[in-house]
């Protein structure tokens, strides 16, 4: 467990530093957003491009990983949506975000910095695969559900609009470019590759700092039972579902441990921003805050379980 804490403690110290910087006014919200855009539009795309372009395509497009992660995530989303809709009698919009919060991880800002310390360079490949699932499957489905209370036309329009927006997403473009380089067997000139490497190296520390800053001002209020349920579902049920699916598919090596490790991360940092479009931003922000606070303990336990309990690392 001391080895696991040596991984998680520095990560959360950087998050705490970002929170302190935001709380003390060293960086305001606008400046934190600029740093966040740097990570999303430059640093993380550079990291994923570098990771994918430097590997054979057979190492990247792992069907077993994608199947287990996608089906596990969808199962959790469906279960959470059904529970909120049928048991708690919530409206379809709230239920959609309840499902998304339990089933979509913060793979780039929190997941990669932790998993790369735990598993090494393969974490970048796993991050690219999880982001494909999150951006091309989970988010579009959840947003379509959230808008789907009116008519099938609205449902399809929302889905199409979301997919069009994702087509220009730097993260998706970097994954596509990296895969193309891998398939064609091309390499960047050494000076360009070094520049990409330097940019990629900035992703983890800046991302963690931004996550800490984004927590400033969030409050735990209203719908506390639902907030606690979504937090525990995300941190426990989601990785458990992915772990169960991995027992049924042929996947060995570090990618096997990477799938539940990424699933064990808190929900997307943009969760409150997505929910704002339907007036659920306060609930989403409270859920994000509680999930982040609890995640230090749960992630440490999950990493220990994967390493010492299951022996997958």
UniProtKB/TrEMBL annotation:
Signal sequence segment: none
UniProt subcellular location: Cell membrane
Gene Ontology terms: biological process: transmembrane transport
Alphabetical list of InterPro entries matching this protein: Mem_transp_PIN-like, Na+/solute_symporter_sf
Entry keyword annotation includes Transmembrane: yes
This protein's UniProt keywords: Cell membrane, Membrane, Transmembrane, Transmembrane helix, Transport
Entry keyword annotation includes Transmembrane helix: yes
GO cellular component: plasma membrane
Xref: Pfam families: Mem_trans
Membrane topology, as annotated: Multi-pass membrane protein
TM region positions: 6-22, 34-53, 65-84, 96-116, 122-145, 166-186, 198-220, 227-251, 257-275, 282-305
Family as reported in the entry's similarity comment: Belongs to the auxin efflux carrier (TC 2.A.69) family.
Protein name (record): AEC family transporter
Source organism: Azohydromonas caseinilytica
């Amino acid at each position: 467990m001391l080895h696991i804490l040596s991984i998680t403690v520095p990560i959360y110290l950087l998050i705490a530093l970002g929170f302190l910087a935001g709380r003390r006014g060293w960086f305001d919200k606008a400046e934190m957003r600029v740093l966040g855009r740097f990570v999303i539009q430059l640093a993380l795309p550079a990291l994923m491009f570098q990771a994918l372009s430097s590997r054979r395509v057979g190492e990247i497009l792992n069907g077993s990983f994608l199947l287990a992660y996608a089906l596990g995530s969808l199962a959790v989303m469906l279960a959470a949506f059904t529970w909120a809709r049928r048991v708690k009698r919530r409206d379809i919009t709230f239920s959609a975000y309840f499902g998304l919060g339990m089933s979509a991880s913060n793979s780039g800002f929190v997941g990669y910095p932790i998993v790369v310390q735990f598993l090494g360079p393969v974490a970048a490949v796993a991050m690219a695969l999880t982001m494909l699932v999150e951006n091309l499957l989970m988010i579009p489905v959840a947003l379509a559900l959230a808008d789907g209370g009116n008519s099938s036309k609205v449902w399809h329009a929302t889905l199409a609009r979301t997919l069009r927006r994702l087509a220009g997403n730097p993260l998706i473009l970097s994954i596509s470019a990296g895969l193309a380089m891998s398939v064609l067997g091309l390499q960047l000139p050494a000076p360009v590759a070094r520049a990409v490497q330097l940019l990629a190296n900035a992703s983890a520390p800046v991302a963690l700092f931004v996550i800490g800053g984004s927590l400033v001002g969030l409050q735990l209020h209203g719908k506390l039972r639902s907030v606690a349920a979504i937090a525990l579902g995300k941190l426990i049920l989601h990785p458990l579902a992915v772990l169960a699916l991995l027992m049924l598919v042929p996947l060995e090596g570090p990618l096997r441990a990477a799938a539940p490790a990424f699933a064990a991360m808190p929900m997307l940092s943009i969760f409150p921003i997505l929910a704002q479009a339907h007036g659920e931003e306060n609930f989403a922000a409270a859920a994000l805050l509680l999930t982040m606070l609890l995640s230090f303990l749960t992630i440490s336990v999950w990493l220990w379980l994967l390493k010492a309990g299951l022996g997958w690392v």
